[in-house]
Specification:
The chain has 540 residues and is of the alpha+beta class. Helices cover 42% and strands 14% of the residues. The chain has 18 helices and 16 strands. It has helices at 53-59, 63-73, 78-81, 94-106, 112-121, 123-129, 136-145, 147-166, 192-208, 213-234, 245-248, 299-310, 326-334, 430-439, 442-448, 450-464, 475-497, 500-524, and strands spanning 31-33, 36-38, 47-48, 51-52, 172-177, 180-181, 260-263, 269-280, 285-291, 316-318, 338-340, 366-368, 373-375, 381-390, 395-401, 422-426. The strands form 4 sheets. Strands 5, 6, 7, 8, 9, 10 and 11 form a 7-stranded mixed sheet that branches. It has a 5-stranded antiparallel sheet with strand order 12-13-14-15-16, with no helix packed on it. A hairpin with a 5-residue loop joins strand 13 (373-375) and strand 14 (381-390).
């Protein structure tokens, strides 16, 4: 009786030096774009044992890495490809370099040394890079070369592509800003007097040795820092009530002169920047910008990026109280955008801004346009005085006073001044009053409550899941580059979650929730609900 012969399977492990047989799709040579031939970075020849690397990743629960490479293949990197001259050795393709940086960002590794180590030791980075292993200097040179293009053109191009492929339409967007610590140390901060002294000493050394270009450059930099300190010191004595910028703006960091000393999210005062975003109601970051200390100054840039993506302004814009000022509301109304922006904090149950230490705020005083007077909560009238120019705001203003405060029963809740309560009315304040009337509508309040769930979780995800708690690159341009990379990584991660099947299931969940709410309303609430569907926008 003869036994059936069986061959032992070939379990010999392939070499770790990418010894797998190349597949048909990886047989292409170097990628040529214009006059530049980029190095080929196809991963089809990578094996772990006898198993191809993409199959290994899928079996190990890392299929999102494979899908991330597929998303990167759909991104247009022509803005970065044109920055190469085609002279010298074949460079790494921008798609591979950006893939490594984005993958490292999603793994909370964003320093150059961490990215170099990731390309060597991480199997997911092997698949993203196609086996290439760029060192930290190559990654740093890539970021410096494409700093401006990544911060603006690449981000807008990526969002425009995702909007088209995922079928996102123009709708409701929510805006917000946060405070992120700069790369400068707080221990090197210089006051105005110290900065001027350093500038004087540097100028003296440069004058003694006029042939030394290094001393001349140091003297110019020291004078620029002193000029920034003097500019901030000029605003030191005119702080707005409750403002923290004017109290801390008279110091400057020598290596981060654009960063402003301000409270961070942990309560500590550090040199920091204020990045801002506009987030679509689907969770996609459609625009981003970085300012020094005023998040409202980023609104024009944010709206320009939104128009570049969708070809139109947002249908509805939701902003918090930090943007409730004349300049922002006037700019938004000029673009004919429906905006909802309360003056108070709805989270604390205050839709209008309260006064100093909880006293009556300006919104508690009714303005009569016919008689040009304010009526206080006690029924007394505040009459106008002379018109003057407010240099800190650059607007004409007029002060309103009353002489009936001495015997008023509400004085303790209104003012502690011996001269009585006074109000300042600035040029163009009618638009803030119009916004207050819009926010008094029930439909506006219900729609505004979407803002928190749309935009607040974005900064939490950037900080806790991507590790953006402090900028690692110096200067405002370096911080803008780093923040743009984090926003690009977040959008690509959103694209991985927004697969067609997931979108269908999410739509079904929303329809079920809508139907349940309709049943509840039909049983417990009257059918006709005033002010819910007749929302009067500010742009009207």
């Amino acid at each position: 009786m003869r036994r059936r012969e069986r061959r032992v399977p070939d379990t010999a492990q392939h070499s770790l030096d990418w010894g797998g047989a190349p597949e048909a799709e990886g047989a292409a040579g170097p990628t040529r774009c214009g006059g530049t031939a980029f190095r080929a970075s196809t991963p089809w020849h990578l094996y772990v044992g006898n198993e191809r690397l993409d199959q290994y990743l899928n079996r190990r629960g890392l299929g999102w890495v494979v899908r991330l490479r597929e998303e990167l293949q759909a991104v247009d990197f022509s803005d970065l490809e044109t920055n190469y001259t085609g002279v010298g050795r074949a460079p790494y393709h921008p798609r591979m370099m950006m893939g490594l940086i984005i993958y490292g960002t999603l793994k909370k590794k964003s320093t150059l040394r961490e990215l170099e180590e990731l390309a060597v030791a991480d199997v997911g980075a092997w698949w993203i890079c196609g086996g290439e292993q760029p060192d930290h200097s190559t990654i740093g040179n890539f970021l410096v070369r494409h700093q401006e293009a990544i911060s603006r053109e690449l981000f807008v191009s990526l969002v425009h592509d995702l909007v088209g492929r995922k079928g996102i339409t123009n709708g409701v967007v929510a805006g917000d800003g946060t405070v992120i610590e700069a790369a400068a140390s707080r221990y090197t901060m210089l006051s105005q007097e110290a900065a001027e002294q350093v500038a004087a000493e540097a100028k003296k050394s440069a004058d003694q040795q006029p042939a030394d270009q290094g001393l001349a450059q140091a003297a110019r930099q020291a004078e620029e820092i002193a000029a920034v300190a003097r500019q901030r010191g000029a605003r030191r004595w005119r702080p707005s009530r409750g403002s923290t910028e004017a109290k801390s703006a008279w110091v400057v960091a020598p290596f981060e002169s654009a960063a402003v000393m301000q409270p961070c999210k942990d309560g500590r005062r550090r040199p920091s920047y204020k990045p801002s975003v506009l987030v679509h109601e689907c969770g996609l970051i459609v625009s981003q910008a970085v300012e020094a200390s005023r998040e409202s100054a980023a609104i024009p840039e944010l709206l320009d990026q939104h128009e570049a993506v969708f070809g139109a302004a947002p249908r509805t814009l939701l902003l918090d109280a930090g943007y409730h000022n004349i300049d922002v509301l006037t700019h938004i109304a000029a673009r004919q955008i429906d905006v909802l922006c309360p003056s108070g904090s709805p989270v604390e149950g205050q839709w209008t801004r309260k006064g100093y230490q909880g006293k009556f705020g300006k919104t508690d005083f009714a303005y009569d346009a016919d008689t040009d007077r304010y009526r206080c909560p006690a029924g007394q009238w505040l009459v106008p005085g002379a018109t003057y120019h407010e240099p800190s705001k650059g607007l004409a203003a007029r002060k309103y006073r009353t002489t009936q405060c001495r015997g008023c029963e509400l004085r303790a809740r209104c003012t502690q001044s011996k001269q009585g309560r006074a109000l300042e009315r600035y040029e163009g304040e009618e638009i803030k009053e119009a916004m207050q009337q819009v926010m008094a509508q029930r439909g506006a309040k219900r729609q505004y409550r979407k803002r928190k769930e749309i935009v607040e979780r974005i900064f939490a995800e950037l900080a806790w899941r991507q590790g953006l708690k402090r900028f690692r690159r110096r200067g405002r341009s370096g911080s803008a580059l780093e923040f743009s990379l984090h926003c690009i990584a977040h959008n690509l991660k959103w694209a991985l979650r927004a697969s067609p099947s997931r979108l269908v299931f999410a739509l079904i969940r929303h329809l079920r929730r809508w139907w349940r709410l309709r049943v509840i309303w039909a049983r417990n609430l009257p059918i006709s609900r005033p002010d819910s569907d007749n929302l009067q926008p500010l742009a009207a």
